[in-house]
Amino acid sequence: MSNYRLKKIYFIVNANSRIGFGHLKRCLLLAKEFNSKGIETVFLSDNISKHMINEVQEKHELELFDTKKSLLETSFHFINKEQSLLIIDTDDQEFYESNYQKSIYERGIRFMYITIKNNISYYSHFLLNPNIIALATNYETQSYTRLMLGPKYFILDDNFKEIKPNLRQESKTKNILLTFGSADPNNLTYKLLSILERYEHFFNKLRVVAGGLNTNVDNIKKHKLLSKNNVEIYIDTKEMYKLMSDTDLAITSMGLTFWELTLHKVPCIAISGSEREKPVLKYIGKENYCYNLGDYDDKDWEKKWQTGLDKYIDNMNQYRSGLDKLYDHININGKTDLINQVITEYEKL
Q1: What pLDDT was estimated at residue 321?
Q2: Per-residue confidence (pLDDT) for residue 234, from 0 to 100
Q3: Distance between CA atoms of 286 and 67, rounded to whole angstroms?
Q4: Does residue 284 share a domain with residue 166?
Q5: Which CATH number fits the domain that encloses residue 39?
Q6: Contact present, 13 and 89 (Cβ < 8 Å)
Q7: Which of these, 10, 28, 12, 18, lies nearest to 256 by C-alpha position?
Q8: Whether residue 112 is found in the same domain as residue 226
Q9: Residue 237 forms part of a structural domain
Q10: CA-CA distance, 129 to 147, in Å (whole number)?
């Protein structure tokens, strides 16, 4: 039992082959930290893949709703407004509408958003954006809203706290890691595989990691069978730390993996994996924290990405100068600092 005024956390979050596992993983990491303080956790969802349900239910209470409408309209009945906090981690616009936010506030429920959206008027008590783009973003909030912005609040799996920057000899050929999260709904992995087939002179080994929600795994495996290159395929692997430690260059999107790679000081070529990631990649690329190859919905993607890869290979050192700066921004204890601050600020509400 918690010794704090805050006794229970409710998470609204989904995970499926369309949106991936990132939102849920982040909430599970926060839930574990809250649990270590004696604070109970409950997950509320209307769309979570079956093999993720067991992972949540192992340690947390899970309430499943048939539709998004039912989650929006009836989730309030599950929330004890006394001594609790509702955390909303979703990109679904319905959860950001002013009427919905006001209905939460008027019920006396204290709530928090985890988001990068800055085109919203927020009525929440807490607003968290741990991405570095938050430091250059303005938000419309209330006088009572606590802002928690930037990688000072970076949410890192405790297993990655011991990450040390890779110390590898510079060479013309690389060990490349290709990964686009747990779902990759835009089939970026397969598209990049087809392009990289022409760059066998650039890498020794190409390691491809596909997540458990990836629906294109069969095509990825078929590509390996036909490829003339040294390609290794990993499906839903538990060896990401080991793979990152032996990586010279990664091709990825703007999810949690990008930040874990940054802690290894692995330079990244990045493609946005969703609309939400586009402004993040634009900012991070502009700051030279990674190389911006393009967006998931580029029309002439094959030509554009191949041209971009050629440019990167010809000017590799130029595109690595910002990596150390980004590394210095990340607080590996951000999750613990965040939870402690939430608990402290909750006492004042």
Answers
A1: 80
A2: 97
A3: 40
A4: yes
A5: 3.40.50.11190
A6: yes
A7: 28
A8: no
A9: yes
A10: 8
The model's pTM is 0.91
Q: Are residues 19 and 39 in the same domain?
A: yes
Look at residue 142 in the predicted model and tell me its pLDDT: 98
Check if the beta carbon of residue 193 is closer than 8 Å to that of residue 214: no
Residue 189 sits in the same domain as residue 316: yes
CATH number for the domain harbouring residue 311: 3.40.50.2000
DSSP helix/strand/coil, 70: helix
Provide the domain limits for residue 308.
160-329
Neighbours of 327 (CB within 10 A): 16
Same domain, 140 and 214: no
Tell whether 259 is covered by a domain: yes
**H-assigned helices in 168-208:** 188-196
In this structure, the dihedral spanned by the alpha carbons of residues 339, 345, 347 and 349, taken in order and rounded to 10 degrees, is -130
pLDDT score, position 317? 82
| 3 located within any domain | no
Treating both helix axes as pointing N-terminal to C-terminal, what angle do 50-57 and 22-36 enclose, rounded to 10 degrees? 10
| Residue that the structure tokens 């969703």 belong to | 274
pLDDT tens, residue by residue, 128-183: 999 999 999 999 999 999 999 999 999 999 988 888 888 766 666 689 999 999 89
Same-domain check for residues 188 and 320: yes
CA 345 to centroid of chain Cα atoms: 25
Q: How many CA atoms lie within 13 A of 102 on its CB side?
A: 4
Q: pLDDT value at position 132?
A: 95
pLDDT at residue 64, rounded to an integer? 94
Q: Are residues 299 and 166 in the same domain?
A: yes
| pLDDT recorded at residue 348 | 93
Asked whether residue 126 is domain-assigned, the answer is yes
Domain co-membership, 204 together with 292: yes
pLDDT score for 166: 80
All residue ranges of the chain with pLDDT < 70 are 168-173
What is the distance between the alpha carbons of residues 321 and 195, in angstroms, rounded to a whole number?
A: 26
Domains in the chain: how many in total?
A: 2
Could you give phi then psi for residue 266, rounded to 5 degrees? -90, 120
Which is it for the CA torsion 134, 13, 30, 238, positive or negative?
negative
Burial of 99 (0-12, 13-18, 19+ CB in 10 A): exposed
User: Which of 12, 33, 185 lies closest to 91, judged by CA?
Assistant: 12
Q: Residue 168's pLDDT is what?
A: 62
